[in-house]
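ok so dumb question maybe but i'm new to this and my supervisor (M.) told me to 'just get the structure for Protein LURP-one-related 15' and walked off. so i did the thing. is this what she meant?? sequence i used:
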Amino acid sequence: MAAPPPLPAPPPPEPSGGVVAPVAVVAPHFCAPYVVQLLVKERFSLREGDFTITDTNGAVVITVKGALISIHNRRLLLDAAGNPLLSLREKVISMHNTWEAYRGDSTRSSDLLFTAKKSSILQLFKTEMYIYLASNTSHEVCDFMMKGSFNERSCSFYLGNSNILIAKMHREHTATSMVLGTDCFSLTVFPNVDYVFIAALVVILQEIHTDKND
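this is what came out, is it supposed to look like this??
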């Protein structure tokens, strides 16, 4: 008799005082009622900032395309069918590596969804990023926050300035990434949290880190 197939790995524990109401930034249907595990893989390409984001079965969920020639540093997030989800654009004049995210492939102010920026100019060992929704025009208190060490590729995402964890990421070492010198991240998005929004923050973090190294 053949041995039974191995049981799937248990999901990560939910955060203490976890999110109950959906955290929908891009769209409510990107908020799953369970833990979403994604793999963010940098593609070897002529364009900087090309990524493929897959689920645990290897199916493509999101692709990220960089711009070959652009005044602004731009990234476009597409769904599996090639439809634009988000347009990410770095502000040209910014002391805090500020990025803006717009709905679809728009860059109109009316389609702005959120702004992400480093909390301070000098960040030697730790990385901290504040995220503000478009409705939060004062930027006095952040709506989301990222803390961690991007040099070690280990970061956590929180709801507001709190200890409510909504997602985590860490670096994966694969044969392909080591040979090509590309990055690969494992991303855990907790229930009721917009996984496209979190994926976009990982892309922005990678771009901020690349800019710092350059």
